[in-house]
Amino acid sequence: MKMTSITKNYLAMLVSGLSIILLSACGESEKQDSDNQMNTDSLTQKHVNMVVALDLSDRISPKKNSEQAVIDKSLINASYQCFLMEVQKKYFILSKDRFRLLFFSQPENAYSSQILLMNDSLNINVESISLSDRRDYVPGFGKVLSRQVDLLYTLAQTSPTYAGADIWSFFAHELQGYTAPKNSNFRNVLIILTDGYLQFENRYSSKRDSRTSMNVAKYRSLKNWKPAFEKDGGLLPAGNFSEWEVIVMEVTPALEANTKELEILTLYWSKWFESMNIKRHKIIFSKELPEQSIAQLVKFIDNQQP
């Protein structure tokens, strides 16, 4: 299991430390507002429509990985701090930025009613907040979000079953509804936290189109697997998402020492995103230390290539 030498206390300290670093960066932006003058960059800055989507399948089970929930929380916190930085770049009053945290559905939904109610409440639209309240409300929402995420993971970890996160259906039926209107001066940024496997229990996968889930085991068993993969076509495209930038984080190969496993997962995701015309994407494996993953996340959201 990854990062066995890193304790939960260390991770908690890391989350706190990184928050301070990110907020310090935000503070630099606020200093520029000391004379209440708005520079040209603020007026032309694109707004961010940020969606953080969670895989709450067995990857977060304490029995499988006792550290995963803590790591996820650090990444969610970092995502919101990056969102806050985007708002501050526009001095709050010019911001139309949006943030939403949600989780992927699972077949024969195993979530409690309390969890389901949370899926529509973890969001903020800065434009809907009065100008006089924004400087307090937007940073304050981060604290509310942190408490709600703690509750969400506690509830999800008590689930009696984990059928598998239905990421394909999210793209096919939900993502378009979260897209900012075209030509509206928005960037659409999707952050996915998942182990990288679009797989279900056999009783569910047998009822689905075979190309809406992954068959990693098939290619893992083949010495010359790439021609077979290309022939099968990978995952079925779920739509056209040319307006979206997507970063997939915490991808965790079931066989960590198997280079082929990394290659199979990377090709599955990359080919799928390319087939849906995703504007820009990045895949980050869980072998990265949390601070390294967060650094890459910050660069991605800050629109720094790659």
How would you describe the overall organization of this protein?
- With 306 residues, this protein is α/β, with parallel strands linked by helices.
- Helices cover 43% and strands 13% of the residues.
- It has a 6-stranded mixed β-sheet, with helices on both faces.
- Helix 10 links the parallel strand 5 (244-251) and strand 6 (280-285).
Provide a quick synopsis of the model.
The chain is an alpha/beta fold.
List keywords for this structure.
306 residues; 11 helices; six-stranded mixed sheet; disordered N terminus; globular; alpha/beta
Annotation field: number of helices:
11
The residue-averaged pLDDT reads 85
Question: What is the succession of H and E elements?
Answer: HHEHEHEHHEHHHEHEH
Shape: globular
Strand segment count: 6
How are the SSEs placed, and which strands pair?
Layout: H1 8-31, H2 40-44, E1 47-54, H3 68-89, E2 98-103, H4 113-118, E3 123-125, H5 134-156, H6 167-173, E4 186-193, H7 202-205, H8 216-220, H9 225-232, E5 244-251, H10 259-275, E6 280-285, H11 290-301
